[in-house]
Predict the 3D structure of the following.
Amino acid sequence: MSIEVKVPALPESVADATISAWHKQPGDTVSRDENLVDIETDKVVLEVPAPIDGVLTEIKQQQGATVTAHQLIAVLEPAGSTGAGKTTAAATPQASKAAAKGNGGGNGSDQDASTAGPAVRKLLAENDLKASQIQGSGKDGRILKEDVQSYLQQQQKSAPTAGKTSPAAAASKKSETTAPAISFDAGSRPEKRVAMTRLRARIAERLLEAQSNAAILTTFNEVNMQPVMELRNRYKDQFEKEYGVKLGFMSFFVKASVEALKKFPAVNASIDGNDIVYHGFYDIGVAVSSPRGLVVPILRNAEQMSMAAIESKIVEYGKKAKDGTLSLDEMTGGTFTVSNGGIFGSLLSTPILNPPQSGILGMHKIEERPVVEHGQIVARPMMYLALSYDHRIIDGKEAVQFLVAIKEALEDPARILLEI
């Protein structure tokens, strides 16, 4: 009896989705819970697992097709059924490879790669690796992402020339920080048309919405980061030993933002029709760059989180953004956003609001600059701060004072601890 594979229920407010990539083709054997296809919405990527062990006999919707919730996209035949027997010839080569590996022959890379998760397959492809090169540590020898990363690190350490990075490791690092490059031959005038991903299209829509529907204004200030840096340097080793996570700058900025939001509730508010909605909680969005584009996962009830909890959650979100596994709930809501363009080298920028939020804080690159202290010119690690806000509900005075409150908290970190 054939088993139908359908599009899962889509997140609320999402009308349709796009078939992003099939990981199996007709005739391929599949295992229960093995990922068959990635389906991209304008917010998250959904994985569709195989409901049974069997053979994929038919794909109803090809890559790039637009689909809706519960729409039929593929057909499976259970293992050992008559229908599955029709595809035995197509499945035999893969089965032979698996058997050969079990007997010590062949490399079995195709079969191993197909049973790995999407993050592992992506990492293997990016670094031009075969699954047979990696020793899996998961259940039944399944290759995990950590196995691939460990292999790349070993390759880097064993490189013949000290200080040089192996091609695989270099490719891995590049893939983490930049989008795939589009190159053309010198002297030619070609063009390449590439459809926007659903996420990129959604980002474009929301940015245009923010520009069109809000009265965005930006105010600037600068902060002397020396007190925070000294505090961080003094306790970072102990902090990491105690909590298992590094002490970064973002937790200081999140905490400082929460305290400033408590003093200026309009910055934590939003507009709903003709009403202003004041929020009695502080859900802070943290802008994270991912291979698919900018995403903003939420630190819920940030006022209740410790510095360690904030840092741990940010690390978790960063990994999920890279792997494309952030859930819709993790990216929904938020009352204020913090964005750090400084990690890319930005010295100054005007961030755009994330609707329906009314404020966003932009962090920038830390640079030593001459400043005057007590009549003396000294060098200090300075950072420009930018606050973009919706002038419809936030007056200029409030915006400036809000940014000053963040500056004062960071230049005297004891204020964060004392909540003053």
Notes: The longest helix spans residues 226-243.
